[in-house]
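Moderator note: this is an archived Q&A kept for reference. The question asked for a predicted structure of one protein chain; the sequence and the answer are reproduced below.
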Amino acid sequence: MKLTFLGTGTSCGVPVIGCQCKVCQSTDPKDKRTRCSVLVETETTRILIDCGPDFRQQILPQPFRKIDAILITHAHYDHMGGMDDIRPYCQFGEINVYANPIARQSMLEMLPYCFAEHRYPGVPAIQLHEIQPHQLLTFGDLEVMPFQVMHGKLPITAYRIGGLAYITDMKTIDEAEMDYLHNVEILVVNALRFDKPHHSHQLVDDAIAFARRVGASRTFLIHSCHDIGLHEEVNQQLPPDIQLAFDGQVVECT
């Protein structure tokens, strides 16, 4: 199974428009962060987690083949604002999109033309499915277990796929949900920055502490803003088993 980080940034992306900080002015490609999204693939199955407003830019370098499922974590625009750009993939058939009740309702409101009784030609052909935590999903040779974390007061969906756990925008997690993280080998989790606490996002120290609770062999930090610092410098500060992910990074996992 292969994991490709399409985007690793926060809602504003990096560089931030108009910002003159050293991160936003960096020439290192690893300091360019589009909005969070990943591909999880085997030879026969392809899953996209989140489809933000940078999706077109992110997917162009990838091989053009069927997307078997799009899994939405939550209803914020930076995680589902690119859904209209899935149109080219509809030549393979309807796109199956999976979201919790809040995100599903938001998508109906954001893309009403996709769900109208008489849709005009060319709109994305989306089959929208409502999912609940702990109800196993199967796509080809991949099994996906949704579980729940909290983004402030907003419940959002995290996903366990084999030895991989993907969590974004988390502030807290109920102790019962930790059961779905047993024996995780690769953990992907959000880390906004090092300081200045945020009401609905973890900081780097929070993410490190969470990784220690999970006990993953490797942890990749995502959903990081320009305040986190330069990619190279951040990774020098992190433990050897934890690193700041970057756009385009590919990780082999089980």
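Archived answer notes: The CA atoms of residues 19 and 107 lie 31 Å apart.
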